[in-house]
Amino acid sequence: MKNVLFDFDGTLMDTWPGIEAVLRATLRDLGMAHREGYISRGLVGMGLARAFQELLDEGEDLAVVAARRYREFFPEIGMPRATPYGGVVPLLGSLKERGSTLFVVTARNEAITRRMLSDHGLHSCFAFVRGEKEGETPDGKGHMVAEVLERFSLSPGECVMVGDRRYDMEAARANGISAVGVTYGYGTRDELLEAGASEIVGSIGELQEVLVGNVE
């Protein structure tokens, strides 16, 4: 595929250990009681303010305060706990060698995403990173994908979105591009299929076969 749009959390990097630690640190710091059983991988991908609304069962104002504190904690607590999935680096290298142009589209803060990619030597693999900007409260990722397509004059038929949550599949479908769902991240096979995934893979190796083909 000529152009590949990657989700970040649960697709390129395993960030859950850091996310969980920062969620707990934020709630503890603010003295907020959370709903039992709601700190789970299911929060990944939905945007911070919405995630805290789910956790706190409170109004939007408190969720925004919690999201701001989370961002302050994340560089120190969350970033050191994040690691690229095994096989991601060779996969990106193979795609670049085949002439694909790579992008990141994520609900994570854009500046933090760029920093994490740089810290792990991945930033140069991508032509563009589109994440959440300061003051932005995105509802889904469809508008982010649309921005990438327009900015780089990409044909939907020459693009594929790769992600682990329904938000990625829905964003791809909204923009007329195909979507590959990965189950090694934080979503489920049923979730991805229901959201419109055209193909499901369970490992980086399987993703390599779909995007690049067998490489001996």
Rg measurement, Å = 17 Å
According to CATH, the fold-level topology of the largest domain is Rossmann fold
The total of beta strands comes to 8
Spans where pLDDT lies below 50 across 5 or more residues:
none
Arithmetic mean of pLDDT: 91
State the share of residues found in helices, binned by percent. 40-55%
Task: Give an overview in words.
- The chain has a 6-stranded parallel beta sheet, sandwiched between helices. Strands 2-3 form a two-stranded antiparallel ribbon.
- Helix 2 packs across helix 3 and helix 4 runs parallel beside helix 9.
- The protein has about 220 residues and is α/β, with parallel strands linked by helices.
- It folds into 2 domains: about 140 residues, HAD superfamily/HAD-like (Rossmann fold); about 60 residues.
- It has 9 helices and 8 strands.
Blueprint (SSEs and pairs):
Layout: E1 3-6, E2 13-14, H1 16-30, H2 48-56, H3 60-77, E3 83-84, H4 88-97, E4 101-109, H5 110-119, E5 128-132, H6 142-151, E6 159-163, H7 166-174, E7 178-182, H8 189-194, E8 199-201, H9 204-211
Parallel strand pairs: 1-4, 1-6, 4-5, 6-7, 7-8
Antiparallel strand pairs: 2-3
Helix pairs in contact: 1-3, 2-3, 4-9, 6-7
